[in-house]
Amino acid sequence: MDEKQSLGIYSRDDLKRHLYELFWGIQQYVTAVFSQDEDDRAKASKLNILAYLGLQKLLTLELKASLTREGLSSVREITPHVLSSLEKMILNVSPGFIPESANETCIHVGEAEVLKEKRRKHLLGGLNQDFPAVMVTLDRIMLDTPDIFEDLLKAGMKIARINCAHDHFLVWEQMVKQIRMAEDKISKEEGLKHNRCKVYMDLAGPKIRITAFQNERLPSEIYIRKGDAESKGFITCGTLPSDLESDSFVLSISEEEIAGVQIKDTIHFTDKRGKKRFFKVLKVISSTCIQVELNKSSVLNEGTLLLWKNKQWSLSNYQEKAVTIYLEEGDFLRIYKSSDYLGRTGNKSMPASIGVTLPKALVNVKVNDRVFIDDGKISARVTGVEEDFITAKINFTQNKKIKLKSGKGINLPDSLVYLNTPALTAYDLETLPSICEIADIIGLSFVHHPNDLKKLKNYLALLTEKKIGVIAKIETQESVYHLTKIILEGLNFDSFGIMIARGDLTVEMGYKRLAAIQEAILHLCSAAHLPVIWATGVLENMTKKGMPSKTEITDIFMGLRADCIMLNKGPHIVDAVKLISEIKEVTQENLYHIRMSEREFIQYGF
């Protein structure tokens, strides 16, 4: 047996025959699968993605090896133009070959490149050198320092992301106004019109979250130590906003509002021990709440008087504070099928318990189903299912003892959640008219099925004549299983793309499968000539701590294959945007120098 036979590599005659069989087999597959009633828009892309699926179905390892041995294109390179490239391969091994019926199903290399570029620019905006575009998640805290919007635009932000699961329309609208103002300022400074930043808005979708916890009354006396994280806290004459969850102190005063207080003001008091102390105002949250920092360690109680300018506030009582729930491996947790249930700590007779924002998500839960909390920081298995609640046993926590927090997400990958929780929720439909006013792109969160896209398309048609781009976020098991159908439906939109939302996707599919899945999504979108967004966890260490990890740099390099890279919020977000631009430049320079070096080696017979 010679080397070729031992490797299973075909002879040239066998290669011709198998290439013919592959070509016509893919043709038959496409004809059988493609519906003639299909919307004619994007027909070339629809046919090519089906040709790609046929290629994956019919291509053998032996044929791949033979193609490589003959110096023909790799399968990965022909993804955007499958049948056209196969035609050329056949012509290379069999001159004079004339296909009889492939013309209408073939999209050629140049056509595929032009089509992809057109869709990319239409959806994401920008110029060629802007890709992959950088998308930045905005935070309401940015409104306190509006210069950051200008800094982000100058650093290279091309798309601003607003997560509609947080805040409300007035906050979203204000953030967009700040972006437009920053663009106008840059245009005046540079004497050129600044390219308009696209606004991308993620619909909240059916995210299962933990409801609020019961309040507990704090002791009437509290010791605040200077230097600890707890030296920063809040003074309020109302209820502390739920999104300001803090381990720090909360002091309540008997006033209707805290009017006139400004950042850097001081609020003086004499503590229980007779020591003169003061709070420095860090932030004015609202007319009823301010954030402050203590100058020296103090002991306060209900008799403490706070002095600000010529006003005197009586410390009436410490704000009731949500209970703290800790979990560790081996503990049990009850999850109630109620959005009104207030979480509470456990005791000898009853485990800790929580409610969920989407009770319908628990309808199909069964014993032994997996439960992931807070992006997998806590995992459990269902041990019991009752009419009002389910019980789960904790089998993993990121730390030995981990704090459970309200508002954190829950994933139930085994429980057929999608059957009872549509991708478009009542809240999404309520906010959609306002979102259409300011959005250039809308993200459909937790898409499960192509019908979810059809519903969104119908609602958008009723609400606006504006051409709004749509992104399908792939973040559930069901979206992965229906990915090809989701892409085919998405091609019926005027402007459409796919987001690899790796946060929930990792929890749903498992860490071991993530790399393979994200590669598969990239290839399918390449076959469909659709833009892809590389999202979640990108430069997370950099945005939060100011220093990227080595693996984050590698992740960025891999993300350069996508059309857009999404960054989440953090104190060092501007530096993270700059870093991506620098990595893009260095990568392009290196590729150029590598090519030049190769020429030099060839020239000198190296």
UniProtKB/TrEMBL annotation:
User: Which residue spans traverse the membrane?
Assistant: none
- Tell me the GO molecular function terms: ATP binding; kinase activity; magnesium ion binding; potassium ion binding; pyruvate kinase activity
Name of the top EC class for this enzyme = transferase
Q: Which residues form the Pyruvate kinase barrel domain?
A: 318-568
Write down what this protein is called: Pyruvate kinase
Q: Which InterPro entries match?
A: Pyr_Knase, Pyrv/PenolPyrv_kinase-like_dom, Pyrv_kinase-like_dom_sf, Pyrv_Knase-like_insert_dom_sf, Pyrv_Knase_AS, Pyrv_Knase_brl, Pyrv_Knase_insert_dom_sf
Q: Which cofactor does it need?
A: K(+)
PANTHER family recorded for this chain? PYRUVATE KINASE
Q: Which family does it belong to?
A: Belongs to the pyruvate kinase family.
- Pathway, per Swiss-Prot/TrEMBL? Carbohydrate degradation; glycolysis; pyruvate from D-glyceraldehyde 3-phosphate: step 5/5
Q: Which SUPFAM superfamilies match?
A: Phosphoenolpyruvate/pyruvate domain, PK beta-barrel domain-like
EC number of this enzyme: 2.7.1.40
Which Pfam families does this UniProt record tie to the protein?
PK
Alphabetically list the UniProt keywords: ATP-binding, Glycolysis, Kinase, Magnesium, Metal-binding, Nucleotide-binding, Pyruvate, Transferase
Annotated PROSITE patterns: PYRUVATE_KINASE
List the source organism.
Peribacillus deserti
